[in-house]
Amino acid sequence: MAIAAIISLPLTSPTRQSLTRLSLTSLRFFSSSSVQPSFLGLKTVALRNPNFRVSATSMSIEALEKESQISFLDRKESGFLHFVKYHGLGNDFILVDNRDSTEPKVTPEQAVKLCDRNFGIGADGVIFAMPGINGTDYTMRIFNSDGSEPEMCGNGVRCFARFIAELENLHGNQSFTMHTGAGLIVPEIQDDGKVKVDMGEPILKALDVPTKLPPNKDQSVVKSELTVDGISWNVTCVSMGNPHCVTFGTKEGQVDELNLADIGPKFEHHAMFPARTNTEFVQVISRSHLKMRVWERGAGATLACGTGACAVVVAAVLEGHAGRSCTVELPGGPLDIEWREEDNHVYMTGPAEIVFYGSVPL
């Protein structure tokens, strides 16, 4: 269910008391189903008239007069940031229409506050849709929840594609080009609503990943030993425009039992990864089915990581665990990944969904 809401939320950390007075105004539901009783503690409401006002303190509902049909995303009030929250398998992002400027509308410090799940909107990152450069249609930039800026994000690309389709009122099968810190990315919105993304060629040369681990296979690091906190892990290093350390070193069934909050930062900040690293812990179910958990550089444990799923399939092929086309099972759901032999490109297919619309004063 997609929800549109105008949310009043300061970027300065509010007190818990002020947070409880937060009001959701002009709440509109774009769903053919009814709101379930669990939503905001309310009784079931039919959506024949989808315009309501909800007060977070009283939970009262008032029918509103029919509102203007002007798109929420066309609003240009000064001093407000309008956004749409999307998720790709639970990896969630705040999407901002930044097509009128080459500079992000919020700073990294503001992005940290926006992403805070207790005192902000809550997200794994803020993504900006910006003017294209070098002949591309658009540029994508992203600030992680810690304020750092990664080269790109696979799940974010799919959310970005759906966001552009809404901004440009595109329907059906659509494709366009995007400039990212990792280079050219080409997403394709399919008829079923999923997004297929040409993620380009994986980077395997150790110096370009980058990793300081010594190459052991054609300038690459494949199934190499890495000591983390006194424990030896076999790792393969892959870049999908951002660095990944993939390990199949866990025993069967143990991937769900890993304490990511403990082990993840030790991989991320390991001396062998000068730019830090994303880390994927993988269990092989079959040659076409892999299960993974991820610790993302700059975001921590997330429900999904698109570039990570791509890196996992590349590593699985290099280590002989799987074929070139796999379903990768993440905590948030599955992604279909193919590493094509004919062009050496990795293709990722998966969903991207709207969560809600909102505005925040800057």
Labels describing this entry:
single chain, 22 strands, mainly beta, 22-stranded mixed sheet, disordered N terminus, 362 residues
Provide an overview of this structure:
With 362 residues, the chain is mainly beta. The radius of gyration is 21 Å and the shape is globular. The model is unreliable at 1-5 and 7-70 (pLDDT under 50). 14% of the residues lie in helices and 36% in strands. The chain is built from five helices and 22 strands. The chain has a 22-stranded mixed β-sheet that branches. It has helices at residues 16-20, 108-115, 154-167, 260-268, 306-319, and strands at 2-7, 24-30, 51-54, 61-63, 80-88, 91-97, 125-131, 138-144, 174-175, 178-180, 183-189, 195-198, 224-228, 231-239, 243-247, 278-286, 289-296, 300-302, 325-330, 333-339, 346-350, 353-361.
Summarize the structure.
The protein is mainly beta.
Structural class: mainly beta
Q: Could you spell the SSE succession in H and E letters?
A: EHEEEEEHEEHEEEEEEEHEEEHEEEE
- Main β-sheet: number of strands, strand sense, barrel status? 22 strands, mixed
Query: What's the N-to-C terminus distance?
Result: 28 Å
Helix content: 10-25%
- Please mark out the parts with pLDDT under 50 across 5 or more consecutive residues, or reply none: 1-5, 7-70
Q: Report the total helices.
A: 5
Tell me the strand percentage band. 35-45%
Query: Taking all residues together, what is the mean pLDDT?
Result: 83
Shape: globular
Radius of gyration (CA) equals 21 Å
Number of strands: 22
